[in-house]
Amino acid sequence: MSYALLEKNDLTSVSPEGTVYLGGWDRFRPSYTDTIDYPLTRIYQVESASWQTQYTAVDVQLLHKFNKLAKKWKRETMHCSLVKQMVLHPAYQEMIGLGPKVIPLILKELKKEPDFWFWALRSLTGVDPTTEDMHGDVMGMRNAWLNWGRENGYF
Amino acid sequence: MRGSIGEEKMDISNPHSFFENFPRLNKSPYPFTITSPSDIRYNCIAWAVGVSNLWWDPYHFWPQNCPREVTIPAFVKVLGTLGYRPCEDGRRERGYEKIVLYALGNEPTHAARQLSNGRWTSKLGKSVDIEHRIKDLEGPCYGKVAMYFRRMVENI
Fold it and tell me: pTM here?
């Protein structure tokens, strides 16, 4: 009988040798060690888990960094009327600099609340699912990107 | 906090940041009024020309044949497509509707439209609309008043 070894919000990490360390303290883990011998290089938080032991996880350090930058960007561009000011903001540029790993995080932000993530998504994905007739239609552009996210397995 | 809230939920979510960006609003002897809630569907340029469902921007919706750049000449051309011509000041003139353009240095940042009572209405980026005095939005966020425009209209 198969069962999920990890659950949502468990913290886990992977050693350089590939051994998975688990942060859950109260579940039976027959196949994996639950001791930590040396410093963890990355800590992940499980986002979803299935009975086939497949799970998706997000790097917690990346998540925290992204969230901090996103919050700063939103706060400091709240009164900007022009996209140029928003996308040239240092926090926005830094988020793009984190690389394609942040695409799912940006799509989640966009799903939560519409905002001018379009430039970042174009830069990171290399595609643009919006059409010319959507330009200026913020909700239309948002829906185009959310549909793209769904079609490409991000949701 | 100076200013008034016209309806429930039309609030400034971060007053500290709001008055950092617009210090004159807090010190003005003429309180500003919040006239609609935060709405990301339109920006100041759109609102200044009477639109509330599109984001007017050189990189988004922009009138045809206008330079897609954030410069004063580009904005002069955009407003020109709607009949606005540069004028001398923001004084209320019967028969005319006026728009004011703010800029930081030579780069446009904001536009506001004059109301029939002589005050001005502005959409503050992704945030709320307010009614205010023209100079009260000068500051670190929008810079200074750069140009005035007017066009003839009926019933004003």
Answer: 0.81
